[in-house]
Design a protein that fits this description.
The complex is a heterotrimer of chains A (662), B (329) and C (221). Chain A has 662 residues and is mainly α. Chain A is built from 23 helices and two strands. Chain A has a domain at 104-442: Cytochrome C Oxidase, Chain A (Up-down Bundle). Chain A has helices at residues 20-23, 33-55, 68-86, 90-96, 104-111, 125-153, 164-186, 189-198, 207-215, 217-226, 243-246, 250-278, 291-321, 336-370, 377-390, 409-418, 420-434, 443-466, 468-474, 478-508, 514-540, 555-586, 655-660, and strands at residues 618-619, 635-636. Chain A has a two-stranded antiparallel ribbon with strand order 1-2. In chain A, helix 2 packs antiparallel against helix 3, helix 7 packs parallel to helix 12 (250-278) and helix 18 packs antiparallel against helix 20 (478-508). By secondary structure, chain B is of the alpha+beta class. Chain B has two domains: 14-88 and 114-134, no CATH class; 165-320, Immunoglobulin-like (Sandwich). Helix content of chain B is 38%, strand content 19%. Chain B contains six helices and twelve strands. In chain B, strand 11 and strand 12 (319-321) form a beta hairpin. In chain C, helix 1 (10-58) packs antiparallel against helix 4 (139-169). Chain C is elongated. Chain C has a domain at 73-221. With 221 residues, chain C is mainly α. Chain C has helices at residues 10-58, 74-99, 103-129, 139-169, 184-220. Classes of the chains: A mainly alpha (662), B alpha+beta (329), C mainly alpha (221). Chains A and B meet through helix 7, helix 11, helix 14, helix 15 and helix 16 of A and helix 2, helix 3 and strand 9 of B.
Amino acid sequence: MAIETQPERAEPTGRGPETAGGGERPWWQHMGAHTGLIGAVAGYFLGHWLGNFLGGDFARSSLSDENDVAIVLGYSFAVIGWLAGLGVFNDLFLLMRGKPLPEEPRFLGQEGPGLAKYFRFTLDHKVVGIQYLYGMIAYFLTGGLFAMAIRTELLSPNYHIIGPEQYLMVVGEHGTMMMMMMSSVVLGPFGQYFGPLLIGSKRVAFPRLEALGFWLTPPAYIILLSSILFGGFPTGWTGYEPLATQATTGMDAYFFAFGLMGISMILAGFNMIVTIINFRAPGMRWSRLPMFVWGQFTVSWLQVLAVPVLVGACYMGLTDRTFQTAFFTNQLGGSSFLYQNLFWFFGHPEVYILALPGFGIVTEIISTFCRKPLFGYKVQVAGLLGVATLSFFVWQHHLFDSGINPDMRPLFMLTTELISIPTGFIYLVAMGTFWKARIRFTIPMLFALAFYFNFLIGGISGVFLSDVPADTTEHGSFFVMAHFHYTIMGGLIFAFFGGLYYWLPKMFGIKLNETLGKIHFWTMFLFFNTTFLPLFALGMLGMPRRVFTYARNLETLNDWVSISAFCLGASMLIFLFNFVMSMAFWRQREVGNPWRSRSLEWQLSTPPPAENFRRVPVILAGPYDYGVKDALPVADLDPPPGVIGSAYAPAARGPVTREVED
Amino acid sequence: MSSAEIPLPAGRHAAEREQRRIWWLVAVWLLLSLAACLVIWFVWYPHLPPGDMTTSARHQQFDIAVLAVTAAPVILGVFCYFAYVLVVFRARPGDDSDGAPIYGNAKIQAAWIIGTSMIVLWLFVFGTVELIVPAGAGAGEGASPIWKQSGAQTVAWTPGTNDILQVQVIGQQWTWSYRYPQFGGMESTVLDLPVNTPITFHVTSLDVIHSFWPYLLGVKADANPQVDNVAYTTARQTGSFIVRCNELCGIWHGAMTSNGTVMTPVAFKVWATAVQAREKANGTLAALPPYALTYDPTVIPQLGKDLVNVVGVTGAPGYFYGPGNPVTP
Amino acid sequence: MAEMAAQPSPSAAVQAEDEAFYHESGINAAWTGSRLAIGGLAFLFGCFAFAYFYLRSLNSAGRWQGSGFVQPAVWLGTTIMVLALLSASVNWYGLQRIKAGRKSIWQIAGLFALAMGLAAVALQIWQLTTLPFPPGSSGYSSVFTGFYPVFLTLQLAVLIWLEILLARSRFIPAMSFVEQPPTVTETQSVQRFQASLSSFTTVWSFMALIAFSFWFLFYAL
């Protein structure tokens, strides 16, 4: 039948004799996060000592008693030690001695059941996806806690809970934790796990780079949090110079962590692009690619091309603070505008790195739960490509009032408003898909609908911001805050939760509790809107961002927002409770294809076999052919011999293959 | 497969019913949009931020109102459509069938693309016009502004004429101060301005990036160190306003506020000359650096020579280069 | 067809087919990856090039170069650039020879390329420690002292790739480059090596181009 409701059972993985090599030693004798931690600590002390040795003669920042060079070198060596302890460099050293790498099936088979593999440097993209999932939930909840602190402080304009330095520390940590760490959501949980599955591939192009991309995120997280030990950083997540050069040592943590995360994003994007281009199964034409994969593909381009500029900007910020270049110091030939231009050249594609995967996830969801083909597949692809391309040309809309060259402003107003056209295509496709559908209001579908609702408000408010005269009042105010919380949180985070409820049965074979899920959705949706909708008004009424005090007549509105925010936090707790209880205790089994989806990942067992597919599948049709009589199944999972052999043109055919192809 | 509950019309009556429902939907949308636009334009517009105290604020009010009137039908259209489809096309309980296999519709796609493009282009044209006409719409235009206001550039400012009042806004951590070059470069900590006078703000900073935001004046200009950022407005009503800092500049960013008043031109002249005389008398004016469009607090000419000779050259942010350094600005 | 020859069982045969499919994908991935890497690197270096031109045109406080500015030694900078160019050219020449089947010529050329590349890196490090200006004394000095550490680190990283290729080439018999080896495993191994070598050459030539471009910016413009 076209849709497998009872996919083949998984092969017993990791219980056979092939795992004898890995199963005998206790977990702590393998390299993993514990050895990485030892390496990190050793590295930090080494680097710190080296920094004091090298940089002790530099005049220290007059505002602190720490040597920035020591701190930055400490972080660098800590990261190198962490990676070395994890075993990231083992294969590199093998290669440098000319030895061939151990074959991957040995690695995959070695993992086996149990939790230990999630703490190791592993080459299985599914494990990496799950690592990202847990990491991302942790980072998100940490950032959310900071947000609760912000809203507590903003309850009153003149009664202060925390001092101004601590307040800015909290604001910066919240923003940076969310913007920096949420970027991993993109190619994180779902992209790494399902990307190869959806293109019909058994593996990814560069599994070591992919795993390295994940393992750079825990040090980035820890380093970002370590800033608190140094008094935090006062610039918010944008790190504007020259305040960043003036700041005390907590600032180093920001630049370093952000640069590290940037490298992680580049590697993840790099791997994803090459995998999607080169590892598609035979028959997976570009016109049959699932929309989620198109989303991943476009996002990866943004990551590979835009994030190097961030790495450069963070590096320049660090050199300004350590060996005292003058990139951003006007009096010495630098310019504060240089930082703004470089940062926002990255910064704008960054927000599309956050938005585009949301588009991809909800498209998968609505097609399955409308049981209809996507309306205008090519239109949506054009929309994704258009948004990705145009996002490189709009960055100066963050700088409308900054005093840069004024004749650029109409141009950037035009490009920014143009970008709403491809974004509108997403809505066209969604609206067309709902016409004459059979809509099922499952929890993923609810989240997808909430996505469209929230992103519409967020997107239209973006049009208000792109208009330069209106931007004079709105720039830098809570209006901007409302805009990006609607698009990023209302968009991406809702899509993320939708994807989580949708795909958890496939990843773990466990369904999250329905009732709790519905409570989670409705409370989150309600309180999200009550929290962020008034922020538009607050911004228009003259409240700037990142302030701990405000006009007295805005106190009622701020109190309403704060209390809503606490309720929003509570709804996250409902989710957390549901997640922990369902995964650890209730464990409601759901193997098979509960959503009766046509998509390729649902045609496999739960969890998917170690190598995803027993055979390279041959793709026969697109995943959205619902309602079509005699629609071909999306793939042939057991192609006859010779089909794969004729799907490529090898440079030479040895005697073995010649036998097979008749 | 139950036949009675399929919402998908099969016969001609059903098709007509669907047609009628679509017309109802369009009618509801038009009505709601009309109501929303009327409410926005007549009820909301006069009270829209940032108010109507100055020309730039008024133009921004107009601009925001037009944007809202353009956006409201779009938002309502999408919401009405979704409300319709979510009700009409929901799967009835027990219905497991698929929807209709519609892959696309060239006419609808083309109409959408053309429609959205036209709206976007309209917004661009309108936005550019609204940017140019009120001399930059109160936004900071940098050191070489293109859209200037009309008025006479004079050395001394006279009330009742078309003379432009020059005000320099200096941001520093964490306070605002204002210098009036046409009054001898005197400095004030309150921003007093004359009504019905073209005003040019020269916004600069002494240390990090701040942003000058007198909300009710409809002006916003970033204060960058060693950069002169020019913004224009003309006040049309008297009254008081608050200036806030709009760019994170350190720990007291939230407390970096300042007061200002718009008063009659004559009263302003009286105040300004009084301040100028007072500062001349008590030596403040002499102690201030000479009025310039930007200031570099690390360069103190009187001390500079001595520092170079003795301990080397100071560089920002406070580090010293040794005397052996061949670079001496 | 069910009747296979006696030696490989059907599942082994299709497994070999699948492996060959991924072998092909892997080889194409080397091509795609190298071009993509060039794209990403271009944007990274473009960031520094933007800083160069932006600060130069702004000339804040007159300190793009400022009074008392001393240019870093042109002979040293040019030597470093020429070494990078030579390294890439020698490697490229070696690639052409190994494509014609002469493995040992590439090995020698590769060793020369590695040596010259390392010399370029070493000289650059030396130059950075003996600059005639402190890092922050002008815009030019900032971009110079900021850019070259990044560039030489990346050069070093790419040279590790060259070292890996040289080490690997020791275990591939020279005959494999002249005619196709008898077994599938060896064929795949040689093809992987060739793909990696071609990709390396592309990336290393790009790095040489960047070395030249920034030499032009810092010394000639």
